[in-house]
Amino acid sequence: MVYRKRTSFQTGLIVAQLSEFSLILGSMALSLVHIDAPMPGLITLVEPITIGVSTYIILFSHQQYQWLWRWLRLFERRIPHAGGPDQDEVPDDHTADI
Prior knowledge:
This protein is mostly helical. Helices cover 53% and strands 0% of the residues. The chain is built from four helices and no strands.
């Protein structure tokens, strides 16, 4: 799949959040002795921080993209996708036609 830099950027911000599922995986890894005993405590400590921070990161993702879009060209292919509009420029409005 080939996505444009805006789609990839926003998707990356959304999936960066550590979810409650990490607690399940951490407890399973502890029971299978794949991790040491202090690790679930660290996961529990980091999880609320990432949930709180990622909320604001997701809310302000448009502003972050406007600030970083020139540098994100490094990660985009020369011919990103055969169809769809060209999104090399930051659009002025974000209205949706329904």
